[in-house]
Amino acid sequence: MQYVIDGYNFLFRGSADDQPLQDRRESLLNELQLLAKSKSIAIVFDGALHPSDMNRSNLGDLEVHYTTSGQSADDYIIDSLPFMGNPKLITLVTSDKGLARRAKGMGVHTQSVEKFMKRLSKEKAKQRPEKPRPQVPRKKEKRSTFDYYLEEFSRELDLDE
């Protein structure tokens, strides 16, 4: 399955944050980069909000696309979908209903940002090593009558040495 993410739609649907836009974007890219080790992921941002002239880059296995001036991320995604292979193997992650409707019309699966974020959280939890469970103190075991007499006779006979 190949995932295509509507970048700013994803970023702005997440939790409200006081961080600058660039920091939020970098944080999101770092999270997705870890996930991209096991999945094919491309994320598309509107280029007008990106300070560089670079249109495409890779962060490890994560493809990062910035649209050219005058082109929206939505149009870039729709224009790119026919070149990505079998549409049944593509999932577009967006909560933009208009974009989702256009992609579905091309045979592409869609998933809301919220649903994808839940899935991402579950996958992150799987990657974390389990914390060792604290040892439950055992109840003091009662000695059997046999053990009691064995210990007592051993002391008297000095068999413990």
Short overview:
With 161 residues, this protein is of the alpha/beta class. It has helices spanning 7-13, 21-35, 73-80, 97-104, 113-127, 145-157; strands at residues 2-6, 40-45, 56-59, 62-66, 90-93, 109-111. It has one domain: Rossmann fold (3-Layer(aba) Sandwich), CATH 3.40.50.
Number of helices: 6
Give the distance, in angstroms, between the N- and C-terminal Cα atoms.
70 Å
Indicate the overall shape.
Answer: elongated
Low-confidence stretches: none
Rg for CA atoms = 29 Å
Within the largest sheet, what's the order of strands? 3-4-2-1-5-6
Q: Could you name the CATH class?
A: Alpha Beta
Average pLDDT score: 80
Please give the largest β-sheet: 6 strands, mixed
Q: What class do helices, strands and sheet pairing give?
A: alpha/beta
**H/E series:** EHHEEEHEHEHH
Descriptive account of the structure:
By secondary structure, the chain is α/β, with parallel strands linked by helices. The chain has a single domain, classed as Rossmann fold (3-Layer(aba) Sandwich). It contains 6 helices and 6 strands, in the order E-H-H-E-E-E-H-E-H-E-H-H. It has a 6-stranded mixed β-sheet with strand order 3-4-2-1-5-6, with helices on both faces. The longest helix has 15 residues. It is elongated and about 100 Å long. The chain starts with a strand and ends with a helix.
